[in-house]
TrEMBL record, chain B:
Signal peptide segment: none
Protein's GO biological process: DNA-templated transcription initiation
An MF annotation (GO) of this entry: DNA binding
Family: Belongs to the sigma-70 factor family. ECF subfamily.
Keywords of this entry: DNA-binding, Sigma factor, Transcription, Transcription regulation
Span of domain RNA polymerase sigma-70 region: 21-88, 124-172
Species this protein is from: Flagellimonas aequoris
Name of the protein in its database record: Sigma-70 family RNA polymerase sigma factor
Superkingdom field: Bacteria
Database matches in Pfam families: Sigma70_r2, Sigma70_r4
Length: 266, 175
């Protein structure tokens, strides 16, 4: 016998079960275990046997004809129901069948109503989720714009205009550099869409000697509605340049593909 | 399993099955009523009424709620307690004498011609008064575990462990 079963039996809950002293939930629990473990069922029967013995011993001496008297009384209670109802059976049958059919139709109707309501609820839930997502995206976008606007208005920000170079003379870009916070915002509005497989890479440059340091990529330029990119820059930059590089960026700039360049004003 | 079939037939208003159940449990039901009323003649009358009730309510028995014996025990207790209340005009279970089993046990010499006192004495041999009292409350008076704990000012867990050891003693006495 497992420890748990033994412990359960020893707890005394089965004695209370036989007494009818448990809550309905506890009764169900005992029943469940009794079905699962024969030892528990056997113990319940053992307890019941002892209570049967005990209650029997407190019984008054019984008269032998006890059940005959009961049986006679039962005969008085039962008979008149069947006779009356038998005559009406066939009529009753029709009514019964009709009622069953009505009930079945009614149940089916309720079922399909319920199904419809359920799918409506599902659609509503989906719409709600969509709206929530839109709301959350919008909130993010607003927060981003607030941040950018704050950056642009910050008095510590220097604005560097980058002009188009040989490969694309009409290109331009702007860098908003906050030296205090080591952050730059690139406005890439004036750059053409990069061919697929390529991306723009932003470089911080010191001029003497010319040393480029990558500060980030302008990935997914075509997806970014406002074409504004926030990057970090802790370099003592003297100029910024933007080159077109294979996706993922390059170690050093491909100077033939220099799209925009501008020096930091002193 | 046999008992299950019998109960099923009884629930389908099979009188023969009911007669068998009566033979199995009549003494127990009358015994419980007798302990509550402490009046063997009246107990026999009520016992009869209880079996009529059991027949009338047969469709209300639900095996998922407990043993068949527990169900009829409960009907018997309620009927007897109602009788006692209507006599004494008291409405609280706590106003019932809770020591009637103790009383019957102690006075069993005098009752010898009315009940099977030798059986009772041998079953309760060696049991402490507080055991007999608890058995009386739980099996004969229908106290719930919670009500018994409250009445005896005892933690609810103690009721469980105590009744376990009390019934174990009876079972030892039976062996």
């Amino acid at each position: 016998m497992s420890m748990e079963v033994e412990k359960y039996i020893a707890s005394g809950i089965l004695e209370l079960y036989v007494a009818g002293a448990l809550t309905p939930e506890q009764n169900l629990e005992v029943q469940h275990y009794a079905l699962q473990y024969p030892e528990i069922q056997k113990e319940i029967e053992g307890i019941e046997a002892s209570i049967l013995k005990l209650t029997e011993s407190t019984s008054p001496k019984m008269q032998g004809n006890g059940f005959r008297k009961i049986s006679a009384e039962l005969d008085d209670i039962i008979p008149f129901t069947p006779l009356e109802s038998r005559r009406k059976t066939s009529w009753g049958n029709y009514v019964g069948w009709a009622a069953s059919i009505l009930l079945a139709v009614g149940l089916f109707w309720l079922y399909s109503e319920n199904r419809n309501l359920q799918s409506e609820v599902e659609i509503s839930n989906q719409e709600k989720l969509d709206l929530e997502e839109t709301l959350s995206t919008t909130k993010d976008a607003i927060a981003r714009k607030d941040f950018i606007l704050e950056q642009l208005r910050n008095q510590n920000v220097s604005v560097i205009a980058l002009g188009g170079q040989a490969v694309s003379p009409t290109s331009y870009a702007k860098v908003y550099w906050n030296k205090e916070q080591n952050s730059v915002i690139i406005d890439a509005q004036g750059l053409p869409e990069p061919p697929s497989g390529y991306t723009y890479q932003v470089w911080s440059l010191t001029l003497d000697p010319l040393t480029p340091t990558s500060i980030g990529l302008l990935d997914n330029l075509s997806d970014e509605g406002d074409k504004l990119f926030a990057l970090e820059n802790s370099n003592a930059s003297e100029a910024f340049g933007i080159t077109l590089e294979p996706e993922g960026g390059s170690e050093s700039p491909t100077l033939e593909q220099l799209y925009a360049l501008g020096t930091v004003g002193r | 399993m046999e008992l299950d079939n019998l109960i099923q037939q009884f629930q389908q208003k099979d009188k023969a099955a009911f007669a068998t159940l009566y033979d199995m449990y009549a003494k127990n039901i009358c015994g419980v009523i007798n302990v509550i009323l402490n009046d063997p003649e009246r107990a026999q009358e009520l016992c009869h009424d209880v079996f009529i009730k059991i027949w009338e309510k047969s469709d209300q028995y639900d095996a998922s709620k407990g043993r068949f014996f527990t169900w009829i025990l409960n009907i018997a207790r309620n009927t007897a307690i109602d009788e006692l209340r209507s006599k004494t005009h008291k409405n609280q279970k706590k106003n019932l004498p809770v020591d009637s089993l103790v009383g019957i046990y102690e006075n069993s010499e005098d009752l010898n011609d009315k009940i099977d006192t030798i059986g009772l004495q041998s079953l309760l041999k060696g049991l402490k008064d507080k055991c007999i009292l608890l058995i009386d409350m739980l099996y004969f008076k229908g106290y719930t575990q919670k009500e018994a704990a409250k009445e005896l000012k005892t933690p609810i867990g103690t009721i469980k462990t105590r009744i376990r050891s009390c019934i174990s003693e009876i079972r030892k006495n039976m062996a």
